[in-house]
Design brief:
mainly alpha; 7 helices; about 85% helix
Length: about 170
């Protein structure tokens, strides 16, 4: 789940930093990315829910068999008691990863969970872009022009090397 979040963040930042996109294009790509990852994570949380249910049923059945009790008796346990029993039976049942999955699967899901983080990412990107604009204004030169100039120099340099190789 954590790797998915990092992957999402990386792609989101790439969209924000893409100077070839208009603000409208950025917004559309961000919305598409949020939708895609939201659906992906919803599917993963549903899968996690099914796996946990199956594991819980299996563990309770094994527990009942080992301790010579009925599943009906175990069915009388409260949800908290079942959760405590599962945590005792299965390592990681209520660990940090599961807590993260539960948060994502909660009300509002992925979109609600990431809202604050996306705001921070956008804020920091705007600060970065303003710093670049300030630097550009102070330099009196568009940084894209500088990049293109460096590219032109690199191409010309490569041509000089090729000419030297032919000469030698």
């Amino acid at each position: 789940m954590l790797s998915i979040w990092k992957e999402f963040q990386s792609q989101y930042i790439d969209i924000l930093n893409d100077t070839n996109l208009t603000e409208e294009e950025k917004r559309k790509r961000q919305q598409l990315l949020e939708k895609e990852y939201g659906e992906y994570i919803n599917n993963l949380t549903a899968e996690n829910f099914n796996i946990r249910n199956n594991l819980s049923e299996s563990a309770l059945a094994s527990f009942a068999e080992i301790y010579n009790t009925s599943l009906q008796d175990l069915g009388k346990l409260s949800n908290d008691q079942k959760q405590n029993l599962m945590a005792d039976l299965i390592t990681g049942w209520d660990g940090g990863i599961q807590t993260m999955i539960d948060q994502v699967a909660g009300e509002g899901g992925f979109a609600e969970l990431i809202k604050d983080s996306l705001g921070e990412i956008e804020e920091k990107t705007e600060e970065y872009q303003k710093a670049v604009q300030t630097t550009t204004a102070l330099a009196g030169k568009d940084l894209n022009d500088l990049k293109n100039g460096v590219d032109d120099v690199a191409i010309a340099y490569k041509g000089l090397i090729e000419n030297n190789d032919k000469f030698i």
